[in-house]
Amino acid sequence: EYNKNGRKYKRTQEGNFIRVRGESKHLIVAHNYSNYGENYAIVSSYYILQQTGTILQDYRDLCLAIIFTSREIELNKWYESNSKVCSVEDALYNPFNFKQDAMDYISGISLQQRIEYVKAGCSILAATKINFLQTDHHVASPMLEGYVLKELINEICGSESALKSEDVYNSLRAFCHWCSIRGVLHCLDVPGLRLDAELIHNFKNFPRQPEWIKNAVMLRYPAGTSKCALIKKSLIVISKSVFGKLITCSNPSSIHNLFKLCSAIEAEPLRYHIRASSNNL
Predict the structure, then answer these.
(1) Which of 11, 131, 154, 265 is the most buried (most CB within 10 A)?
(2) Range of the domain at 243
């Protein structure tokens, strides 16, 4: 372990460092086929949800989507070194006293139902990554933000009150950090990503997202560039107004440069994201 700026970090067996804070929120996964039968991710995700208020009772469909999708994250390796996952040896909590409870919770779910829950869970992951792209945050509190995320949570929870639920917020906040940002953005066809063959291969089974979700990617500029979008929109509105003809511009080249920059942002949004470098996007 080591400390930096008041934060504690712990070295994992893979040689990476994970921050020791909220350690009970890391998803435990098996890293090889011989341990897949242990259902680490299912038990771990159930335990994390069980520690989050009364969400297991209040929003069962959402919890099943999270639990079944966590299993796919484990099996398909939909995570990277900066994702909040760990091996059972590196785990700083023990969820396995709840293994039977976890198995009972997911019992009675048909294969087709499970497939639908995974689709829903993956769409929620996509929504949180869109939020990250546009706002630099996966989820917001005290009320969830993002058009796609709010639509999905409304649908799966069946209540607008879920958008203000602290339990829902805390569950989604844990869930979204188990999965690779780059991998999901790749599945949303975001241009300019730094990709490698292994990541592309791992995400080949990620469910294809509906067009309305993929279209939401470009509805807003990436985090850190919102002022550019605002100025561009203002200039367009002014130019189309009656009063726009009365306004003179002392430096037309600055407007030209702004629109040129906006075109570049729209072509390669990740290049201009405020944390593109630190997240290896």
Answers:
(1) 131
(2) 226-272
- CA 65 from chain centre, in angstroms, equals 14
Among 194, 191, 217, 211, CA closest to 134? 217
Residue 281 lies in a domain: no
Q: Under 8 Å CB-to-CB from 195, ≥6 apart: which residues?
A: 182, 186
The encoded tokens of residue 55 equal: 């969400």
For residue 85, the surrounding DSSP H or E stretch is strand 85-86
Nearest to 48, CA basis, from 72, 30, 22, 73: 22
Judge if 147 and 23 occupy the same domain. Answer: yes
Contact 190, 133 (CB under 8 A): yes
18 with 40, same domain: the answer is yes
User: Which residue from 81, 115, 78, 39 is spatially nearest to 199, judged by alpha carbons?
Assistant: 78
- Say which range, 5-14, 227-236, 237-246, 268-277, has the weakest mean pLDDT: 5-14
Please count the structural domains in the chain.
Answer: 2
Sign of CA dihedral 220, 226, 228, 234: positive
Q: Which residue, of 218, 235, 252, is where some domain finishes?
A: 218
Give residue 267's pLDDT: 86
Least confident of 4-18, 95-109, 121-135, 215-229: 4-18
The DSSP code for 155 is: H
Tell me: do 164 and 65 sit in the same domain.
yes
Tell me the per-residue pLDDT of 203-235, one tens digit each, with 9 for 90 and over.
999 999 999 999 999 888 888 788 887 888 888
Q: For the segment 168-188, what is each residue's pLDDT rounded down to a tens digit?
A: 999 999 999 999 999 999 999
